[in-house]
Amino acid sequence: MKESVRFVVNGDPVEVLVEPGATLLECLRQDLGLTGSKQGCDKGDCGACTVLLDGRAVLACLVLARSVEGRRVTTVEGLAEAGRLHPLQEAFDTQGAAQCGFCTPGMLMSACALIEENDQPSRQDVREALSGNLCRCTGYTKILDAVVKAAGEVHQARAAPKGGGKP
Amino acid sequence: MTGRRPVGPAGPGPGSGEGAAFSVIGKRNRKVDGRRKVTGQSIFTDDLQPARLLHGKILRSPHAHARIRSIDTRRAAAHPGVHAVITGRDLPVAYGIIPWTRDEYPLAIDKVLYVGDGVAAVAADDERTAEAALALIEIDYQVLPAVLTVEDALAHPENQVNTFSAKGNVSKQVRLTFGDVEGGLAGAEVVVEDTWFHAGSTHAAIEPHCAVGDLGADGILTVHSSTQVPHYLHRELSRVLELPIDRIRVIQPAVGGGFGGKSEPFDLEFAVAKLSCLTGRPVKILYTREEVFAAHRGRHPMLMTYQVGARRDGMLTAVKARILIDGGAHSSFGLVTTYYSGQLLGAPYRLPAYEFDSTRVFTNKPSCGPKRGHGSVQPRFAFECALDMLAERVALDPIELRRRNVLGADTRTVNEFRVTSNGFLECLAGVERASGWKEKFRQLPFGRGVGVAGSTYISGTNYPIYPNEMPQSAVQLKVDRSGRVTVFAGVSDIGQGCDSVLAYIVAEELGVALDSIRVVTADTDLTPVDLGAYSSRITFMAGNAAIAACAGVKRRIQDAMAQAWSVPPGQVRLADGFATAPGTPSHAVPIAEAFQAAEARFGTLGGVGSYNTPKDVHGSYRGATIGASPAYSFSAHVAEVEVDDQTGQVRVKKIWVAHDCGRALNPMLVEGQMEGSAAMGFGEALFEEQPYDERGLHRGPSLLDYPLATTLDTPELESIIVESGDREGPYGAKEAGEGPLHPSIPAIANAIHDAVGVRLTRLPFLPPRVLAALETRRQAGLSWKGRR
Amino acid sequence: MLPLPPIRYLAPKRLRDALELLEQGGRGRTAPDGDGAQRRGPVLPIAGGTDLVPNLKHRLLDVELLVDLTRIEEPHLRGVREVAGHLHVGALTSLAAAAADPLLRQRHPTLAGAYRQIGSPQLRNMGTVGGNLCLDTRCTYFNQTAFWRAALGHCLKRKGTTCHVVPGARGCVAACSSDGAALLTALGAEARVEGVAGDRWIPVESLLQSEGRRHLALLPGELVTELRVPAAPPGRRAAYEKLRMREAIDFPVLSVAAVADLAPGGACRSLRVVVSALSARPRVVTGLGDLVEGRPLDDAALERVAAQAYRQCHPLANMTADPAWRRAMVPVLVRRALRRAMEAR
Q: Class of the C236-343 domain?
């Protein structure tokens, strides 16, 4: 018998009826049609299903759907705002960080969690933050490039004075 | 860190731009599908959720080798929520990617050949129900002796693995001799001889295979699949399902990585098609990760003995190879693999005499097939290690030894392959300079070292898999009065970016902004045939087809504008979204207006172009066509390593990757291929192997136990693009997706030798193996760089 | 997909409610459902789920009801605090939070560092300190899918009668794969165990048992709710070394925790060396007192300790990494841990 779970996904409150034993990944992909989060191994080994749960990167294939009651989930579909790509998305695109694109959503979410905490990461910091996300295409070089570049842009935007009054 | 090192004036070859003023080509443009990929909007096969979708599962054999005495599916069929159950008897037509070796069934009929061999399939309301139904299928197996090693397979032909085999367990044997090999070895002043073992590896694309079959009310069967070869899949579906090919449509959605692992039909594609035909509903099967390991078709384990003869000055005199290949249960591409294991060694060095004797055998393990650098990564590992040993023996710098033996451009290899452009010397120079080779080789302290290796690879195979005279690639254009151009092509973008490459070429040729190009690919109803994403063929072949498709359209547009402006057609330039006549500023209109002028004059605009290979690029001996290509890429790597002599752990600090891709149509994408290739080779060198136990059970069919390198393991990679400008490649371009994998492994092996003085001959270089080699050295009392 | 079996799920807010659910399940009694329905079956606790969920997907455990501990509000289950000089770490503290905790980093930097090396960022965000300590033992013949284990013929730890690691063995030799367990043992930490019937503190060393199928000395329905790490005396030197295939994600194939207490002059007062990823229980290397106490931990002492550890530690073929190599690495890691401990301040 299906059970109800209510949570907020990408800012929108949702109520979903899920199978007992459904994971958050199944719920997102099958019930909510949010197919951006990918299933690569379904047991926590690859990172393709990484989403943010209350702002922290987690593996949606290991999270019980029922357990996110009342919590905040962000998926790759929630990164762009009002049709504008997130700086990470823009950098992944312009730096060639997405080849097949299958690991990309998970990579972006891990990178997003990093940049939220630290918008001046070293290349090694980025390596650490993405160490749970496997990519088989890129050798990671361009992904690291993209995250460092995006972090720089986020940092500048944060450092810029708010309000934008004319000189 | 990247840098481009052009070799003189690049850019002969088809395509306009006259070598200099490109608008799109050579720029670091976005990919056409990039923004969809970074937002999660790209639709992969498992993202398809049509209404009334059923979910399928395949029951697999727990035995490596067994006869199926009986199968009873009645309980499964009666299970609530189950809509159809099929077994091998429902799909009794043998198939195989190579028409001469059709030796597998979609689901086993009489015999299972490996643990994980498919036996039956179920379609049900959901995956849980399908899985529950599998448990209700009763199979009576008679277990047979499992043949798990090459030695066992050859010693016991009576235990035949694949009953389609003509001769015991031999899948294919090739022996070819070029020149006076025995004389060359006898006359050599130095002969290096050793045996190397490449353990094989698997693709492990992050996207598991997935397929959706859907028989429509109109009788059209549509199969969406994460395949690299929609055209070959289309043909095999028709054969096996015994449906007319024009009633089948194959669509390849976005593919989450292939690397050769999706380049032939798999059981799930036949199963979803058949189950949909039986139920009249769409049926999806998504492999579990464990099933991906069973599907395999990865790199063959090869045991390789080489004798390499040379003079004191390092000049090669002869090379002789004997290679044993573990093929697993089926032929797959094995006929080609067996040839490639020898045929692709003819460059980048001039071999005065060469012989190889390669034997592929069947074993009761998942079938091996083509993995990135098909058939030639293993011999390249062995041979480049042998060259390093040779350099040591004749006291030459290993780069210098390679330089002396360079094959050169516009020549033929010992096995008669035509070689056109060749930037190998520049590749060697590039990595020598960038890595600081001269300051490092033999001069880093004990435990640290550098190693070099070179390689070559094909830009497409010269012949299709099934013999025919038709084009290997084709492009159709729809040119719209809105200024938009739609490119239709059968090519398979599996992440390498070929959809984007076609957009760049058409944008360049017709002067259209990139955002005005739409690319429609890999849909057998809509797109002209391309043979697929294998053998690094698409940029070269589809790229030329695209240029050809643009030519007529371009001419009509130029003619229309020439008439309007009263200038010669040759003076009408199409670039950057405008038609212009340079020199006359008033003669400039947005490209859409130029399209309209042409449409008004000539009628609806469109174009077709196709590519076929030249046929005079190889010899006439039996097998001479296999390994022949219209052009060859060249690569050289230098790897720098650190070896922990207490634990045996190897850390690769950096790999400098130089690659002659002819011309980089988008340097960012070329670098991506170089980096990805080098990283994949690195993983094979240090981490990846697939041990099987005595039952034929894979010891770790998961992404935890089969370790793909993480961000923290992967070295820094520096790409050095070399542009030799091939006269037949589009704008001079050649391949970049597979060649740069090859040198990684021997460069690392040679760097380990430079670091600690041991020659590792068995892949992967796991710490226990490194430590054992160090121990042997210690016991022999040998010192290296002042250390014992 | 590897579907989970149908599982009931409850997420009580009070520890007492969780313990009652676990106790009823643990004793094979019926556990009440939220809607009052009664069902019978095993009840398991879940927190981060990084160990349990893959194990359930592999059908390594039977379960009818999962009791999610993460909604429990009692404060002692979360965070790091100091009580009478000792550090208390709530069992529900995430590994990431523990690794970053200023107090833990200051008082026991080695422990914080060990937590920082576990798995991957996502696994550390999800996994908890309590879950890590209680991590099920792992084996190459056990941590596989149901299909794989059926093809193998099952094993002692689940549904089978034979051990594939040590043929003929009566006991299960699956390996302790917890980074925390080895170091907490070496640090002399204790675990607070709470159940319906009571509340007790037991040394981590006695919590962990040598039988791979029952590697925790917990009564049915009991939970580890917090850890207590005794104050480090002045002169404390500690280090943790582990070997693994990759620099992230992987479980250790061998690990060594070393904790030395030095007198002001540098002489060794006590030394604890714990080697793990061998079989179910971390091995405390014995007989070190005679080898090092009262003497400086110089190179000669390191060699004696390394040799002692080598004699006592016998890695088994319970993982694919070569056991002979892992054994050869015991003294190497012991030496490195001790050197690093001596260099640490």
A: alpha beta
